From TrEMBL:
It comes from Paenibacillus pasadenensis. GO terms for molecular function: deacetylase activity; hydrolase activity; metal ion binding; transferase activity. It comes from the Bacteria. Its cofactor is Mg(2+). This is Cellobiose phosphotransferase system YdjC-like protein. Keywords: Carbohydrate metabolism, Hydrolase, Magnesium, Metal-binding, Transferase. InterPro entries: Glyco_hydro/deAcase_b/a-brl, YdjC-like. One of its GO terms (biological process) is carbohydrate metabolic process.
Length: 305
C-alpha cells in the first residue's frame, strides 16, 4: 500500500562550498536525501553542476535562487552585476532585510532569469526551485517577490518550495502573524499559474540552539517524523562534511555536520520506516500537486467579492 505520508528531504546550498558538495553528493548517491537545490552564484557551483549533469534524471536537482551572501570573508556576487542587488563591495547583500529594502524588481527578474539560465547552460535539468534564506518572501519588510517567482516557475513548468497549508505543530511558521491569510492568497496565485506546491513544510532552527546537542537535535527530528501530517511534506537540511575553512567562516558549521550525520543515522532511518514515511521528490509534486485554475479563479473571486 502506498504511504499516505511522504517526505522530501531537500539539501539546500548545493554548490556553496566543497564541504557542502561532498556531503550532498554522498547523501544523494546513497539515496538518503530526496533532492538538492543548487546555487548558481556560489563559488563551488561548477563542481556541483558537473556532478549533477552526469547523473541526469537519476537525481532531483532544483534551482536555489540566491540573492544574499551572508558569511563575512566568504562571499559571492550576482550573475548580472545589478547595482540594486549588491552592496558597496560588489557582493550580494549580506542579509534578507538589506536585499528587500534595496533590490529593484526589474533587477530581481533579470538575476533570476540569469540563475535559471546558468543552471541550464551547465547541463543540469532542474525539477523545482526554492529560495536561499527566504529572501523573496518579504518576511523582513513585506517587500515580497513571490508573484515574480511564481511567474518564472510557471514559465518553466517548475514546482516551487512553498506549502499549501501551515502545519500547526510547526512552531516557527505558526508563529508568523497573518501568515495563514497571506499564504492563502499566494497559494491561489500559484494554482492560477499552474505552479505545483508541496502540502506542508517542516522548519527547524538553522543554528545550534542554547544547550542543544546532536542527541537532542536527533531526538526532535525523529519525533517530528511520527507526527507528520498526511500528504507531501518537505523539510530542508544544509549538510556538510567537517571542514576547517567552514568552521572558521560559518557560524552554524556544527549544525551542518549534524545534519549530514543525521541522514545517515540508523535511528533516523529506523524512525522513517517505523513511522511509515516514504521519501518523495519534486517530480511527485509536479505530477500530483497541480490544482484547478478554475478553482483558483473562483477563490480569487471570493476574495474580491
Amino acid at each position: 500500500m502506498t504511504s499516505r505520508k511522504r517526505l522530501i528531504l531537500n539539501c539546500d546550498d548545493f554548490g556553496q562550498c566543497r564541504a557542502a558538495n561532498e556531503a550532498i553528493i554522498a547523501l544523494l548517491e546513497e539515496g538518503l536525501a530526496s533532492s538538492a537545490t543548487i546555487m548558481a552564484p556560489a563559488p563551488a557551483f561548477r563542481e556541483a553542476a558537473q556532478w549533477a549533469r552526469r547523473q541526469g534524471d537519476r537525481v532531483s536537482i532544483g534551482a536555489h535562487l540566491t540573492f544574499t551572501s551572508e558569511f563575512p570573508g566568504w562571499r559571492w556576487g550576482s550573475l548580472t552585476g545589478a547595482a540594486s542587488l549588491q552592496d558597496a563591495e560588489g557582493f550580494l547583500h549580506p542579509d534578507v532585510e538589506s536585499f528587500e529594502r534595496r533590490a529593484e524588481a526589474r533587477d530581481v527578474k533579470r538575476e533570476m532569469e540569469a540563475q535559471f539560465r546558468a543552471v541550464r547552460d551547465a547541463g543540469v535539468r532542474i525539477t523545482h526551485a526554492d529560495n536561499h534564506m527566504g529572501s523573496l518572501y518579504g518576511l523582513a519588510t513585506g517587500r515580497s517577490h513571490l508573484q515574480l517567482t511564481l511567474r518564472e516557475c510557471s514559465a518553466r513548468r517548475l514546482p516551487f518550495r512553498l506549502f499549501r497549508r501551515i502545519w500547526e505543530q510547526d512552531a516557527f511558521l505558526a508563529s508568523i502573524a497573518g501568515a495563514e491569510k497571506t499564504l492563502g492568497k499566494v497559494v491561489l496565485l500559484a494554482d492560477l499559474l499552474g505552479v505545483p506546491l508541496p502540502d506542508y513544510l517542516v522548519s527547524h532552527p538553522y543554528h545550534v540552539e542554547p544547550g542543544e546537542t546532536y542527541a537532542s537535535f536527533k531526538a526532535i527530528l525523529c519525533a517530528k517524523l511520527y507526527e507528520l501530517p498526511e500528504g507531501i511534506t518537505e523539510t530542508y537540511v544544509h549538510p556538510a562534511v567537517p571542514d576547517r575553512d567552514m568552521e572558521r567562516i560559518v557560524p552554524s558549521w556544527e549544525k551542518r555536520v549534524w545534519e549530514f550525520r543525521l541522514l545517515q543515522d540508523d535511528d533516523f532511518l529506523y524512525a522513517l520506516r517505523d513511522a511509515g514515511i516514504a521519501l518523495a521528490t519534486y517530480r511527485d509534486v509536479a505530477r500530483e500537486q497541480k490544482r484547478s485554475r478554475l478553482g483558483a479563479l473562483m477563490g480569487i473571486g471570493k476574495l474580491l467579492g
